[in-house]
Amino acid sequence: MSEFTGLFNLPWWGLMLAALGLTHVTIAAVTIFLHRHQAHRALELHALPSHFFRFWLWLTTGMITREWAAVHRKHHARCETAADPHSPQIKGIARVLFNGAGLYRIACRQRQDIEKFGHGTPDDWLERHVYAAHNSWGLALMLLIDLLLFGLAGVAVWAVQMIWIPLFAAGVINGVGHYWGYRNFESQDASTNILPWGVLIGGEELHNNHHTFGASAKLSYRWFEFDIGWMYIRMLEMLGLARVRKVAPRLGRDSRHNQLDGERLQAIIANRYALAARFARELAAACQDELGRVRAAVPEYGARHLTAKMQRWLKQDADATPAAEREQLARVLDYSPTLKTVYTMRQELTRLWARSSLSSEQLLSELQNWCQRAEASGIAALERFARDLRQVALA
Q1: Which end of the chain is more exposed for a tag (fewer CB within 10 A), N or C?
Q2: In this structure, are 238 and 257 located in the same domain?
Q3: What percent of the chain is modeled with pLDDT above 90?
Q4: CA dist 260 to 160, 220, 266, Å?
């Protein structure tokens, strides 16, 4: 009796492609439906893709929408604290990377948090009586489907499907995405962008961008970043099956205005992390001569390393600078009054942005004062940045 090979008698490479294709649908469902649609309300979905994603996630993950959204919202609300469900900064990278699914299950048992953070998720008959009540049934049904399609090899395909989200979403995104990688923005957490995993995790590798602009349906920001999840959302939008509610605000320039007002203040506050990154990039590049003086006085700092560090210090809030680097930063600023002025003005911007107790009129007055002092500093790059700040507009 010959071995049953399923409806599709595929070679080994065909089975690999099938497994990758099936898992890709799952990661698309997680990033589009669970993450951007349910947890952050960054887009609206038509009932057709919404029901398909819910059904597919029931088959391939057994995750309950309300629990997933609640755990993720709690992660943003309590990021990098002891209450964060899966911070590698608190729980250790090995634990999050290799036991992310276990941490997720622990978080789901905190029913008070699920009640607090799980609002607005589906609560229809299907959710109550099928998806949430019998979430393990979908996994068993997926195994039967894989056996029917691929024969005994379907067990291996099913195993890949079962490990995909625990490994890449719970492990790589939550673990590596807060531990290794590059940062476009010095957001108040340890989030990073990871490359080149975009095809495998649907754009979620751009994690620092996401933590900076949490309500944005688009996760890419710089020209070389590719968010495949955003590509799918745009395709759904063109078919009338989705509507984007919000993307990260982009700064433009309105040369007709040269005075700060309420509109420009809102644009500046909304883009404070992007402006901080721009400040660091422009001012560090313009201060190469000053950095050269410091390197001549302290050769062990090294040209390349000091330039990179200065740009990072200018991008960061002072309390985010590692303790091990603070003495070196202080020595650099002591050697150069120009760098000290640039760094001090940058930290003043941080304090201004953080003063939520002030009225809009008070914030506007302080920002106008900052621009006046920057323009009178005698530092050309700082003067130019202040002038540009007066003409900020949302693109």
Answers
A1: N
A2: no
A3: 59
A4: 55, 29, 10
Residue that wins the pLDDT comparison between 234 and 325: 234
Q: What secondary structure letter does DSSP report for 2?
A: P
Q: How many CB atoms lie within 10 A of CB 281?
A: 13
Q: Give the containing element (helix H, strand E) for 243.
A: strand 242-244
Split into its structural domains, the chain has a count of: 2
Q: Which residues pair with 243 in a beta bridge?
A: 44
Q: Which of 279, 263, 269 is nearest to 346 (CA)?
A: 279
Same domain, 238 and 352: no
Query: What's 252-265 look like in SS3?
Result: EECCCCCCCCHHHH
DSSP category for residue 152: G
Per-residue pLDDT tens for 102-126? 999 999 999 999 999 999 999 999 9
- Say yes or no: 304 and 325 in one domain: yes
129 and 224 in a single domain? The answer is yes
3-state secondary structure of 392: strand
Cα-Cα-Cα-Cα dihedral of 304, 309, 311, 314, to 10°?
A: -160
Whole-angstrom distance, CA of residue 61 vs CA of residue 161 = 8
Q: What interhelical angle do 323-335 and 303-315 show, nearest 10? A: 100
Whether residue 297 is contained in a domain is answered as: yes
Burial class (CB in 10 A: 0-12, 13-18, 19+), 61: buried
CB 185 within 8 A of CB 212: yes
The last residue of a domain, from among 186, 209, 244:
244
**277 and 378 co-located in one domain:** yes
* Cβ–Cβ under 8 Å, residues 252 and 394: yes
C-alpha torsion sign, points 154, 157, 159, 165: negative
- Do 129 and 154 lie in one domain? The reply is yes
